[in-house]
Design brief:
The structure holds 2 protein chains of 2 kinds. By secondary structure, chain A is mostly beta strands. Chain A contains no helices and 11 strands. In chain A, the strands form 2 sheets. In chain A, strands 2, 4, 5, 9, 10 and 11 form a 6-stranded mixed β-sheet that branches. Chain A has a 5-stranded antiparallel β-sheet with strand order 1-3-8-7-6, with no helix packed on it. In chain A, a hairpin with a 7-residue loop joins strand 9 and strand 10. Chain A starts with a strand and ends with a strand. In chain B, strand 4 and strand 5 form a beta hairpin. In chain B, strands 2, 4, 5, 6, 9, 10 and 11 form a 7-stranded mixed β-sheet that branches. In chain B, strands 1-3-8-7 form a 4-stranded antiparallel β-sheet, with no helix packed on it. Helix content of chain B is 0%, strand content 50%. Classes of the chains: A mainly beta, B mainly beta.
Chain lengths: 111, 113
């Protein structure tokens, strides 16, 4: 089976940097994805790590280490609009299962 | 503009009634999915379809049914057998099973009274 663990809540100050971790137990997967969801809205795709290492997209970066079963999303220069829930997700290799999501981390950005 | 559309955004139904949630996409995606989200929770998979006229149960399929008669459409029926149907329902699509990016609709918030 697959399970992904994320902290349930994180609070950070506007302008700061925050890291949201995702640890997983899965037999094999294609890569680690991150999604952002504002309250009442749809999740939107942020980033994908197919290989180990760091991927950077503007203020957001994502990291994967398969040997450590660990990944993270890094948000820099935090803005109030970054307050949202962030989900990590994997697509398992085995079976016929689509994306499996973590329970999400609610990020609150404060002034 | 290409996208995925769910309707309605809010839906109220009496207990014991079946209700169908609409999901349409014009992205030419092969795969479509239904997820359920409860407050403070992640996304749990209800059903998914990788090709027309074929679909598979997800983790919480009991009390739900789907059809995939057209590539663009993947409606979800919440039946009276679903014990706790009040939730936020999200439809998504992707190019295929191998694809790691899913596109989501805006969701339907179903309240059963």
């Amino acid at each position: 089976g697959q399970s992904l663990e994320q902290p349930s809540e994180v609070t950070a100050v506007e302008g700061a940097i925050v890291q949201i971790n995702c640890t997983y137990q899965t037999s094999g997967f294609y890569g680690l994805s991150w999604y952002q969801q504002h309250d009442g809205g749809a999740p939107t795709f942020l980033s994908y790590n197919g290989l180990d290492g760091l991927e950077e997209t503007g203020r957001f970066s994502s990291f994967l280490s398969r040997s450590d079963s660990y990944g993270y999303l890094l948000l820099q220069e935090l803005q109030m609009k970054d307050s949202a829930s962030y989900f990590c997700a994997v697509r398992p290799v085995s079976g016929n299962t689509p994306l499996v999501f973590g329970k999400g981390t609610r990020l609150s950005v404060i002034a | 503009d290409g996208g995925i559309t769910q309707s309605p955004k809010y839906l109220f139904r009496k207990e014991g009634q079946n209700v169908t949630l609409s999901c349409e996409q014009n992205l030419n995606h092969d795969a479509m999915y239904w997820y359920r989200q409860d407050p403070g929770q992640g996304l749990r998979l209800i059903y998914y379809s990788q090709i027309v006229n074929d679909f598979q149960k997800g983790d919480i399929a009991e009390g739900y049914s789907v059809s995939r008669e057209k590539k663009e459409s993947f409606p979800l029926t919440v039946t009276s057998a679903q014990k706790n149907p009040t939730a936020f329902y999200l439809c998504a699509s992707s190019m295929g099973r191998m694809n790691t990016e899913a596109f989501f609709g805006q969701g339907t918030r179903l309240t059963v009274v």
